[in-house]
Structure formats: C-alpha cells, structure tokens
User: Fold this.
Amino acid sequence: MVDTPDTARGEAGPRGLSAERIVTETLALIDEQGIAAATMRTVGERLGVRAMALYRHIDNREELFDAVVERIVNELEDDDRVLEAPQDGDWRKYLEALAWGVRRYARAHPHAFPLVSTRPPSAPWINPPLRSLRWIEKMLVGLDSVGFDEEQVLFTYRTFNSFLLGYLLLETSAMALQDPKPGDGSFQSGTSPDDATPAEATDPVPGAISPTRTREQSEAVDAADTSAQQVDPVGDVDSADFPMIHRLRDGLTEDHYEREFAAGLQILLDRVAAVVAD
Assistant:
C-alpha cells in the first residue's frame, strides 16, 4: 500500500488525501447508509476524488473494511472508563469496564458492527468483537498478572468474547432494524479476473455478510499445522510485540467451542436459578 499526501495523478480533488481520511469517511458513510453503500466510488465521491485516487492509499475494498474494523475497535484507546480501569488487581472491574467499552463502540456503529463480528481476522483463533492484537495481549497479560493460570486465562478470553459477540449482535441488529439504512445487509461479492482481489460490491443482500480472505491468507491458514503457524499464519503477529499471545498459542489455537459453550450455558442457568430462588 502506498500512502502519500497527494491525490492521484491528474486528479482535481483536494490535496491531503490519506489512508486515515479515507477510513474516517468510509466509517461515516457506513454509519449513515450501511455497509453496502461503501464502495471505492462512493467513498471517493465523499472525498471529492475519483475512485482510482484511493488506490494510492488503500489496496482494495477488503483492506478498507479491515481498516474500518481496526478503527472501530481502537475507539477503546479513547475511552477513559476503559483506560482508567484497574488491570493489576480487581479483574472483575477490569473486565466489566472492557465489556462496557466494547458495547459502547458497538452501539456507536450499529450498522458497521457486522464488519467487526464477521470480517475474517488475520488468524482463525482471534475471536471478535475484541479482535485487536494489542487489546487481546493487554487482556491476557492482565489476567495472568492477577494470578490466573493459563487455562483460566484462555477460558476467560474465549467466554468473554463469545458473550459479547452474541449479545451485541442481537443488540446492534435491533438498533439497525429500528433505523434501517439503504445499504444494510451484505453485498454480492465477485472477484477480479485473477481471482485474487474481490470485485466491487453490487447489490445488497439483506440480513447477511459476505466476508472474504485474500488467496494468500486462505492458503496460509489452510497450510498452518503447528500452533506457531496457526497463531501467526501470515507472519504479522511478532512474538516481540505479542509475547503472551505466543506463550499461549497452543491453547489459543485449540478448539474448545463445545466445551466452553457447555460451561457458559451452565453459568447462565446458574444465574437463572439464583434469580428464580430470590
């Protein structure tokens, strides 16, 4: 990807075009009109440039959507209630603050939240909606620092995200139904002639999403055999930057969905029993 302060050659639009501006306008467009409304052409129109000008900063629509997801999740960086939460003692208060922070960004972008929940992450073990490597690492380190053993850290990470994902998908879907946008739903996705780059969206498909990986990402994920390969299939999860993720890679890449669903269900039923007993 190339990012320069200039617009595309021959473009009469405003100077100062950047990946950051493109992502900002794309998120604003999705908030206003829904996911299917955001194409390279419509984003370019909002910025006063032709679609081709965007390709100097963003490789394709798929990369643009990934950047939108990163922007949404990183709103946690500006959430004082999350940043001020204790991470070195009271784990319940920290997880509560983090959960409410995730809910705030989901509710701030209900029409964009399907991207957060369904865009394929860089590795299959990354669970939405807390899908930023920086925030995953911070959460894992925080739980480890207060005495959780590795199995407890992994269980908490998975069940925490599973609870948030299920609830917030329901909540944001209800919000979107109350305030429908013309581009809500999914999109018909084709491929370019070389089958490597997804083509522009065409007609929206209400009620669904059509995420894709690049051919390179798909092949890397399919070829990953060891936990080291599975935790970092495309080589962008550096152990120096994310040591806890690499330390827990065996557990992170194991399939625990059925067991943890059963455990989470029992916790829910215990809570229902406690309410009924009151």
